[in-house]
């Protein structure tokens, strides 16, 4: 019964937070969309990700890379700065406006739609790519016990400056301590990390 109440309360926070997020970001996203469109190509980017219990869903973002980014990704895999997942501090595919919106996590705004659809939560483990998931150990797969989140304990604890093993440990810690209050605190920390003066490991 307590678990059900917790899940209902977290879902209510997700819906309320996603609606507020979409409303507050509407004007900034419109302006950013115009700048992204100026670079050529679509404003939005969608990518297949792994959801709760290994299900598949399409995650949305504001495009921060060149249109051909996915085609040349394989050429850069060996240059990843984070073992176990593909992350580059100086990814040559990222556009000028893309670096700005990534620094302030504005590229994540469309994921509020994923939250409203019930595919994601405001707070949870980072949504993994299928190629990452295929390399998971049984311990790693435990992070799929809950919905992936727009933000999470990993993101507010160093983000891309942490390695893959650290991410897994933080995800499992979050799942063990998951509650409405924990989610609320992580959301507050996430908002504080968005300020320009804070270098939060976003790239």
Which helices and strands occur, and which strands form pairs?
Layout: H1 2-38, E1 44-50, E2 56-62, H2 69-72, H3 96-103, H4 111-116, E3 121-123, H5 130-133, H6 138-141, E4 149-151, H7 164-177, H8 180-193
Parallel strand pairs: 3-4
Antiparallel strand pairs: 1-2
What is the C-alpha radius of gyration, as a whole number of Å? 16 Å
Q: Please report the distance between the alpha carbons of the first and last residues.
A: 41 Å
Would you count the extended β strands for me? 4
Work out the strand percent: 5-15%
How much helicity do the residues have?
Answer: 40-55%
Tertiary shape: globular
Order of helices and strands: HEEHHHEHHEHH
User: Low-confidence parts lasting 5 or more residues at pLDDT below 50?
Assistant: none
Number of helices: 8
Structural classification: mainly alpha
Mean pLDDT score = 87
The main sheet comes to:
2 strands, antiparallel
Major β-sheet strand ordering: 1-2
């Amino acid at each position: 019964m307590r678990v059900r109440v917790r899940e209902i309360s977290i879902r209510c926070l997700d819906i309320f937070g996603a609606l507020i997020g979409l409303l507050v970001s509407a004007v900034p996203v419109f302006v950013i969309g115009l700048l992204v469109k100026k670079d050529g190509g679509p404003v939005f980017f969608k990518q297949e990700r792994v959801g709760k219990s290994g299900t598949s869903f399409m995650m949305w973002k504001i495009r921060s890379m060149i249109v051909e980014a996915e085609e040349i990704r394989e050429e850069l895999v060996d240059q990843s700065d984070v073992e176990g997942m593909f992350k580059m501090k100086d990814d040559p595919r990222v556009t000028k406006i893309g670096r700005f919106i990534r620094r302030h996590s504005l590229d994540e705004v469309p994921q509020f739609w994923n939250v409203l659809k019930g595919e994601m939560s405001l707070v949870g483990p980072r949504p993994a790519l299928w190629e990452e998931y295929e390399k998971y150990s049984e311990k790693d797969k435990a992070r799929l016990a809950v919905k992936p989140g727009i933000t999470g304990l990993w993101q507010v604890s160093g983000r891309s400056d942490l390695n893959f093993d650290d991410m897994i440990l933080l995800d499992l810690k979050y799942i063990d301590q998951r509650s409405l209050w924990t989610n609320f605190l992580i959301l507050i920390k996430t908002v504080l990390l968005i300020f320009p003066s804070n270098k939060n490991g976003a790239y």
